[in-house]
Amino acid sequence: MNIASTQQLWGGRFKKPLDKKTVKFNASILFDQKLAMQDILGSQVHAEMLGVQGIITLEESQILIKGLENIKQKIIDQKVEFTEEAEDIHMNIELLLLKEVGDVAKKLHTARSRNDQVALDLRLYLREEILNIKNQIQSLLVTLKNLSQQNKNTMLPGYTHLQRAQPISLEKYFGAYSSMFERDLSRLEDCFKRMNFSPLGAGAIAGTTLPIDRIFVAQKLNFSGIIQNTLDAVSDRDFVIEFISTSSILITHLSRFCEDIIVWATEEFGFIKLDDAFATGSSLMPNKKNPDIPELIRGKTGRVFGHLFGILTIMKALPIGYNKDLQEDKEGLFDTVDTIKNCLEIFIPFIESLQFQKEIMKKSTVDSYIWSTHLLEELVKSGVAFRQAHELIGNLVIYCLESNKYFKNLTKEECDKISAFIYPSLIQLKII
């Protein structure tokens, strides 16, 4: 089904048709068709409100609602061909409706502008996607909880400056990332609460003199309320900024997790073996097994950051009101949503497939000096001043390095040369 030019919907004050280059440059249908279902839903509720308020007849209202439902089904069945000549998703659907129900379709846009219409569509879209991403994060948290329980007693080195620092358990490691993702979940919930207000009825910027019922629309669409200031309603994109900002923090946490996995999967560390189903090889080197999934997630982090800087740059100098610049808010938002969802979708089964090399991890805690802080604190418990204990254990580490030994190899006589408190402390810590 082809659609005529959108100019017939707004071209009353124009004497010339649009230049073809203008049509192509101005069109957003290639990406904003993603909002088709939200646009139809918003229009159906708007049509219902117009009928209830007596602005159009109830019969006309029902014709519009049913016509929009038919168009919705045709879109689902892929029987609709959107066109750049119709500019955007709003006008594409309105022109489709004109063909579907005739001239009564011309009443649908009563008391509405595309400015408040697109603001509504975006909120409906993002509201749904936030719930989808929340569900994915909750699934990830369940996975991390299971991994924590399975590896409660698995010890490995904890690192500072990427140098072995203190022994930790895999339970503590997974718990750290669980804490990060719980904060991400909380931020998404906050974002949802702030954005869940209806802009519809704001018109272009100043509302309408027609007796509409904005609260009726908000309630029908399950919003918490309406955006009171109509000027703010059409010009606000804080919710887009906040979502992409929250997504940037979320994917930062994923990226850090992925960096750990990439390092741990190296032969130098050997803490992880990658499952064949979640790794790739080399077209040249037959020995290779590459961690492409965590590398791609790490790479896509910069992509989301770019979208955040993009929307901030768009908004930073816009005068209040609606400006066409806001057409550029969508592609970055859509791509951020898709990127986050895709990363979470693959990351959960990926980490479930990892094979943790527990003996290598444990050996790394024994064949090292990462128990030094514990040993220091045992001396403090015995009455040695902290600074003195720090120096004594430092001297012990030097001795071990020069003697090519670890704490587990020391004799009582060797320990006593530095401090009589050291050997009993090694026994207490079960190092010897």
From TrEMBL:
Compartments where located: Cytoplasm
Taxonomic path: Bacteria, Pseudomonadati, Bdellovibrionota, Oligoflexia, Silvanigrellales
UniProt protein name: Argininosuccinate lyase
SUPFAM superfamilies: L-aspartase-like
Residue span, Fumarate lyase N-terminal domain: 12-306
Gene name, Swiss-Prot/TrEMBL: argH
Catalyzed reactions: 2-(N(omega)-L-arginino)succinate = fumarate + L-arginine
Biological process according to GO: L-arginine biosynthetic process via ornithine
GO cellular component, one term: cytosol
Organism for this UniProt entry: Silvanigrella paludirubra
